[in-house]
């Protein structure tokens, strides 16, 4: 088998959204994450020579779930998954924390991360045939060097999602999120931690990637722990910036300031 069995194909959609194909190369089947534009997803699947058998919806917002009903009309019998209690359009199966799905031989574990929406979930794809890093699809919970707005939840929920559920994954786990927000996230992050060299280097790299028409994804859990202020709540610079000490207060202050940030 090739070294990396979980093959991920990003599918840019709308203005700055990302959907993804999770491909099992051996069986030529795929799961589609946040397939808001089914025609683009199907074109990517055809180019890869695979068939989409499963749609994984991270959350109910239109720019992630809005293609589900159209997709169902295109492919009879398509399983469309969403988080329990999230009410994402077109879902045929609701899933809860630690539920497991499969696509080919690839295992996909559900991670409940409510806050951005009431039933937001992330999906961790791993291949039991080898020990290559897994890939986690984080929707609008964890962004590269940032996080989603706390629309439907509390700062404690986002703290739990980022710093308990996701931070505990192996450091080499690849992170694929829902939007190309990396450069703007790093501008804020660097205002929080101006002396952080990893943030500076990542921002320079991300600017270069975008200028070349390339993606800034995937990140990794290890990189997020080094460059994402929302996952660095105990760092001296972050505490000084927020003027808070309790992690829940720190993450709330960071989110409030990010909402109002103008570089």
In short:
This protein has 263 residues and is α/β, with parallel strands linked by helices. The chain has helices at 38-48, 62-65, 68-74, 155-166, 182-192, 197-211, 221-227, 236-242, 247-259, and strands at residues 6-13, 17-24, 29-33, 51-56, 79-83, 93-95, 100-103, 106-112, 121-126, 135-139, 142-143, 146-147, 174-177, 219-220.
Explain what the structure shows.
With 263 residues, this protein is an alpha/beta fold. It is 33% helix and 25% strand. It is built from nine helices and 14 strands. A six-stranded mixed beta sheet has the order 1-2-3-4-5-6, with helices on one face. A hairpin with a 3-residue loop joins β1 and β2. It is globular, with a radius of gyration of 18 Å. The N and C termini lie far apart (46 Å).
Note the gap between the termini: 46 Å
SSE order, one letter for each helix or strand: EEEHEHHEEEEEEEEHEHHEHHH
Helix content: 25-40%
What's the assembly state of these chains? single chain
How do the strands and helices of this protein lay out in sequence?
Layout: E1 6-13, E2 17-24, E3 29-33, H1 38-48, E4 51-56, H2 62-65, H3 68-74, E5 79-83, E6 93-95, E7 100-103, E8 106-112, E9 121-126, E10 135-139, E11 142-143, E12 146-147, H4 155-166, E13 174-177, H5 182-192, H6 197-211, E14 219-220, H7 221-227, H8 236-242, H9 247-259
Parallel strand pairs: 3-4, 4-5, 5-6, 10-13
Antiparallel strand pairs: 1-2, 2-3, 7-8, 8-9, 9-10, 11-12, 13-14
């Amino acid at each position: 088998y090739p070294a990396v069995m979980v093959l991920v194909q990003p599918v840019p959609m709308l203005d700055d959204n990302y959907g993804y194909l999770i491909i099992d190369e051996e069986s030529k089947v795929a799961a589609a994450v946040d397939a808001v534009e089914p025609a683009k997803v199907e074109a990517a699947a055809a180019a890869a020579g695979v068939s989409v058998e499963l749609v994984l919806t991270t959350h109910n917002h239109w720019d992630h779930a809005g293609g589900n009903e159209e997709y169902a009309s295109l492919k009879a019998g398509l399983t469309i998954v969403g988080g329990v209690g999230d009410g994402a359009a077109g879902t045929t199966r609701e899933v809860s924390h630690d539920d497991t799905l499969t696509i080919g031989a690839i295992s996909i574990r559900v991670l409940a991360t409510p806050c951005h929406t009431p039933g937001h979930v992330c999906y961790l794809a791993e291949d039991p045939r080898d020990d290559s890093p897994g890939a986690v699809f984080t929707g609008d919970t964890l962004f590269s060097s940032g996080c989603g707005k706390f629309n439907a939840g509390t700062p404690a929920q986002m703290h739990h999602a980022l710093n308990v559920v996701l931070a505990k994954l192996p450091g080499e786990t690849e992170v694929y999120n829902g939007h190309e927000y990396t450069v703007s996230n790093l501008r804020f992050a660097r205002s929080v931690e101006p002396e952080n060299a990893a943030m500076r280097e990542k921002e320079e790299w991300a600017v270069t990637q975008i200028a070349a028409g390339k993606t800034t994804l995937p990140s990794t859990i290890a990189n997020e722990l080094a460059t994402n202020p929302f996952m660095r709540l105990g760092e001296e610079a972050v505490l000084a910036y927020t003027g808070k000490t309790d992690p829940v207060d720190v993450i709330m202050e960071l989110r409030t300031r990010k909402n109002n940030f103008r570089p």
